[in-house]
Amino acid sequence: GEPAKASVDAILRDIEYLQLSGEEALYLCHEVGCLLVVSPDKNPKTYSAVELWNLFRAQSLHFIELYVTYCYYRRKGWVPKSGLKYGMQYVLYKGSPEVYHSSYGVLVRPCQGLGSVSGDHNPGLRWQDVIAASRVSESVGKDLVICSIVRVTGPSNGEEESSVDLPNCARDFVVQEVFVTRKIPEKE
């Protein structure tokens, strides 16, 4: 028979929706190859990695830095998740966020010359941001990492020097980490 209306409503109420950031979606689509992103239209369209790259870059001024940082930590075995509630770009888990407490908070320093497709604004990282993040991270039991993104090689595949139009260009960058610690004399 058919299920009762009440049981269908109960099932729908208990559904948990998966929400991915742009970095997570592109990483799973481009790097891992285990995700297809499809538009919710009547005539669904499947997005390529390049289309996702351009879409996310147009929506976020610092998407390149965030994506490079996300890939860097994934390759090192960490699980980066949004650090928005701590005033940071990411928090890092050594495994599943359902099992582990995050160990690090990550601030990503904007990189000169890597603005969005429509502009190239670089507000920088202020000392006030570092001090605030340091205090928050200590109060929630995390260490603070500040990441800078540096382009170390020329563009891939014979592209022009300034081109960052393909997700493959993320391999042309390295992440430099600075670990921030606070010394409190009374505790030493």
- What distance lies between the first and last C-alpha atoms, to the nearest angstrom? 70 Å
Mean pLDDT, nearest integer?
A: 82
Number of strands: 7
Number of helices: 5
Task: Estimate what percentage of residues fall within beta strands.
Answer: 15-25%
Main beta-sheet strand count, sense and barrel state: 5 strands, mixed
> Roughly what percent helix?
25-40%
Class by SSE composition: alpha+beta
Would you identify the regions where 5 or more consecutive residues have pLDDT less than 50? 116-122
Shape: globular
Notes on the structure:
With 188 residues, this protein is an alpha+beta fold. It has helices at residues 5-13, 22-32, 49-59, 63-75, 127-139; strands spanning 37-38, 46-47, 79-82, 90-93, 104-109, 143-151, 173-180. The strands form 2 sheets. Strands 3-4-5-6-7 form a 5-stranded mixed beta sheet. It has a two-stranded antiparallel sheet with strand order 1-2. A hairpin with a 7-residue loop joins strand 1 and strand 2. Helix 2 packs antiparallel against helix 3 and helix 2 (22-32) packs across helix 4 (63-75). The N and C termini lie far apart (70 Å). Residues 116-122 have low confidence and may be disordered.
